[in-house]
Amino acid sequence: MEYSDKVMDHFMNPRNVGKMDDADGVGEVGNPKCGDIMKVYIKVKDNVIYDIKFNTFGCASAIATSSMATELIKGKTIEEALELTNKAVAEALDGLPPVKMHCSVLAEEAIKAAIDDYKSKQG
Q1: 10, 35, 84, 101: which could join 64 in a potential S-S bond, CB 3.0 to 4.6 Å?
Q2: Of 69, 84, 103, 110, which is the active-site residue?
C-alpha cells in the first residue's frame, strides 16, 4: 500500500493531538470493522472553532486524516466546519488508498459529532 508524503507527514507528526478537559464539544466515533476510534474536542467562541484536539486509536490513515481534518477546520465557523467532506480531507492529503477511504469518513463524522455535542450544550 502506497501512502503520499503528506499522509506520512501527518502520521509521523500529527497536528493537534491531545485531550481537552474543558471542551465545548466532544465527538467520538468508531468503525467496528477496522477497530479505529476517533475522539475530537472543540473549543468555540463567537461561532468559530478556535481550538481543536483529537485522539485517534487506529492505523496510519486514521491518524493522518484526523490530523488533516483538524487543520482544515481550525479557525473556521461552525457552518464551514460542517461542510467539510471526507473527500476534501483525502484530497488535502494528496489521496488515500481506496481501502483506506473509510478513515476520512470517520474524521468527518467525528467532527460533526463534536459540533452536534456543542450545539446540544448550547440548547
Answers
A1: 10
A2: 103
User: Inter-axis angle of helices 101-122 and 60-73, to 10 degrees?
Assistant: 50
User: Each residue of 5-28: pLDDT tens digit?
Assistant: 999 999 999 999 999 999 999 999
- Determine if the pTM surpasses 0.85: yes
34 is catalytic: yes
Nearest-angstrom CA–CA distance, 39 and 41:
7
Which among 9, 17, 34, 119 is annotated as catalytic? 34
Task: Name which of 5, 38, 27 is nearest 104 in CA terms.
Answer: 38
Tell me the domains of the chain and their CATH numbers.
Answer: 5-122 (3.90.1010.10)
Cβ atoms of 50 and 44 within 8 Å: the answer is yes
The one-letter amino acid code at 48 reads V
